[in-house]
């Protein structure tokens, strides 16, 4: 069956093939991510500006631009992953005044985004920090290899035996409801469910 028919890209299939190969070889934690040069490129994802909060990320970018050139509501954007903490690469910074005592101040995190562009290299040149509007320093973006390094051993709360260091077969957790509390718009439709709105009200429900 062609991969396109099941909604899987070639690189996704190849990655899972390598994950399965590593598991069958007895080394499930060692998955090679150097078999394709694209894994050395900055990792990016496409998002939609589906809320005012997300559109605010481009407030500085949109300033002074024509409406056609702006990132618009429900338009697409590109999000990158920043290297923060010990994995980040920094250039030397000037020190003002005498050295202080105690623990050094933590460097601020970066939240890199860019207007959507089919050309990933073009999107990279337009990347900026969504909080400050500043450019992203060289070496602050995760590569695909870094972003995917622990993907296959990430935790999965929907299953038992699926924590970070667990191995073997996973079992789906069973969830049972102890009680039902109607809230929000569901509470306004309580009569449609054949329930008594008085008996089913609580301090958190939307019953009147």
Distinctive features:
208 residues, alpha+beta, four-stranded antiparallel beta sheet, two-stranded antiparallel ribbon, 6 helices, 19% helix, 10% strand, extended, disordered C terminus
Walk me through the structure.
- The chain is of the alpha+beta class.
- The chain is 19% helix and 10% strand.
- The protein has six helices and six strands.
- It starts with 9 loop residues before the first helix and ends in a 21-residue tail after the last helix.
Structural category is alpha+beta
- The multimeric state of the shown protein is single chain
The helical percent reads 10-25%
Across the major sheet, the strand order is 1-2-3-4
Supply the number of helical segments.
Answer: 6
Using DSSP, what is the number of strands?
6
Per the principal axes of the C-alpha atoms, what is the gross shape? extended
């Amino acid at each position: 069956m062609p991969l396109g028919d099941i909604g899987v890209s070639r690189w996704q299939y190849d990655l899972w093939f390598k994950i399965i190969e590593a598991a069958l070889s007895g080394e499930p934690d060692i998955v090679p991510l150097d078999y394709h040069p694209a894994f050395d490129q900055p990792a990016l994802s496409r998002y939609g500006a589906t809320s005012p909060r997300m559109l605010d990320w481009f407030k500085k970018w949109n300033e002074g631009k024509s409406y056609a050139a702006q990132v618009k509501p429900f338009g697409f954007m590109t999000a990158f992953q920043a290297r923060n903490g010990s994995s980040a690469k920094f250039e030397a910074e000037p020190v003002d005044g005498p050295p202080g005592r105690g623990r050094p101040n933590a460097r601020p995190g970066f939240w890199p985004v860019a207007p959507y562009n089919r050309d990933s290299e073009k999107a990279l040149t337009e990347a900026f920090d969504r909080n400050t509007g500043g450019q992203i320093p060289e070496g602050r973006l995760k590569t695909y290899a870094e972003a995917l390094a622990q993907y296959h051993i990430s935790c999965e709360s929907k299953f038992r035996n699926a924590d970070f260091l667990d191995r073997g077969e996973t079992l789906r957790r069973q969830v049972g409801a102890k009680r039902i509390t109607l809230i929000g718009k569901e509470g306004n439709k309580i009569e449609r469910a054949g329930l008594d709105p008085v008996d089913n009200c609580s301090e958190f429900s939307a019953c009147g």
